[in-house]
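Supplementary Note 2. Why include the ligand at all?

Several targets in our set were suspected to adopt different conformations when bound, so apo predictions alone were not considered sufficient. For every target with a known small-molecule partner we therefore ran a joint prediction. The input for 2-acetamido-2-deoxy-beta-D-glucopyranose is given below.
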Amino acid sequence: WRCCFGLLGVEAGTGTSYNPEMRQGLLSSICQVTGYLDDCTCDVETIDTFNNNKLFPKLNKLLESDYFRHYKVNLKKPCPFWNDSSHCGIRYCTVKPCPPNGDSGGTESPSYKYSEEASDHVGECEEAKRLGAVNESLSDETQRAMVQWTRHEDSSDNFCEADDEQSPDAEYVDLLLNPERYTGYKGPEAWKIWNSIYEENCFKPHNIRRPLTPLASGRVLFPGHAFYRWLKGLCVEKRAFYRLISGLHASINIHLSARYLLQDTWSGTKWGHNLTEFQNRFDEVLTRGEGPKRLKNLYFLYLIELRAMSKVLPFFERPGFQLFTGNENKDRETKNQLLEVLQLTKSFPLHFNENSLFAGNKKEAAKLKEEFRLHFRNISRIMDCVGCLKCRLWGKLQTQGLGTALKILFSQKLIENMPETGPSYEFQLTRQEIISFVNAFGRISTSVKELENFKNLLRNV
Ligand SMILES: *[C@@H]1O[C@H](CO)[C@@H](O)[C@H](O)[C@H]1NC(C)=O
Ligand SMILES: *[C@@H]1O[C@H](CO)[C@@H](O)[C@H](O)[C@H]1NC(C)=O
Ligand SMILES: *[C@@H]1O[C@H](CO)[C@@H](O)[C@H](O)[C@H]1NC(C)=O
Ligand SMILES: *[C@@H]1O[C@H](CO)[C@@H](O)[C@H](O)[C@H]1NC(C)=O
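The joint prediction is reproduced in token form.
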């Protein structure tokens, strides 16, 4: 990215003031993410131009279709790993009895007050509960159509194991009614989720500390030397795994900063960009050099999912393939829109060459594939521990989407050899895999676009 610094105004529209030096620091840290990315020969400028001008508008339109906006998900699974998963019920917001012989003279029946700690958090918790709730309403038309969708799925040759989707608890959610944005879900609990994803699922031994890990006691912040030495020593696939997770994390944080709750009063709510929040996550100095690395990982994730989009084209091109919602005209239109997007991804000039990835001998590749699958399944189970339902919804969607992208990349030969007609026994995608995959890519594409918006904001403040 070219860095041009505009005049250094100070006031942001929202009344928060930005110190010019900090702003310049942030711009330069965004601008550090430039040129060639590690592990692939593609440059960020090419991605920005391609995504922001060509792909993003088309993809966004596609995701508004009836087929892609309805995602079936089970949000009721209990967390399999630990008990206290509810931020607001348990730790902060419980109502504790007041100690006896208070100064109320003893005439009242035992009164209950929020404990001091709790009352600090009550507002916060109510906010988090409200903002994190999932709007489950569906139009009548959709509800009637859903019966047909299920019938259609049952009749297609779908023998992939799909534990979540078959559960009676799984329900369709309208994604457009539940945008991914700031929810107030943060602090120790959110940190715990990400920590267990990184610590236990990224092939990392316990004795190697991630940079900036806030330890519960002592708050020692580890510099990254040992960590990056370890990362460098990994085989390219495992390194890729870590970078994908980090990219996903970065993307989610970009959405939270770009759709922050700026104002919440009786006259209405206002959502928008919060530069301070963005800065806290990505500024080079404030994050001790981690910010630019996170952004690079976001681009890496973008390239992987883009590659999967371009590789899956033959699967959707088959004449008999339908994106079924029951409305024939609309379904045909949605399919054409999807094919157009996929063809566009194919035209991207500097594709990531995944031959360098997953290219070991056959036996090794199969082993890695299985390891990846298990780790992804585990990460998706960790998502069941996310206390905020809306965050859980998007977390599950994006892990399933990324898992599907990898499944596609691991199955290229099978996809190339698919029969034009008739069922494909070797390679299948379920409705939920298709929806999560395309929506997950939509999220990353939006993040790349949002970076441009942040850049413009920083220049123009
Ligand atoms: C959760 O709590 C139950 C009892 O309430 C206990 O038996 C179980 O071991 C706990 N699980 C974990 C993971 O701590
Ligand atoms: C859910 O979305 C519908 C449709 O936009 C809206 O009418 C309803 O008020 C929403 N419910 C909540 C609780 O926000
Ligand atoms: C799955 O994640 C949990 C919780 O973080 C962890 O205890 C467990 O070791 C992980 N299992 C695998 C196979 O990675
Ligand atoms: C922006 O985010 C910061 C936290 O990073 C918060 O303290 C501040 O109040 C937010 N600004 C607005 C206008 O909401």
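Residues 20-83+139-460 form one domain. Residues 1-18, 87-119, 156-162 have pLDDT under 50 and may be disordered. Comparable summaries for the other entries are listed in the accompanying table.
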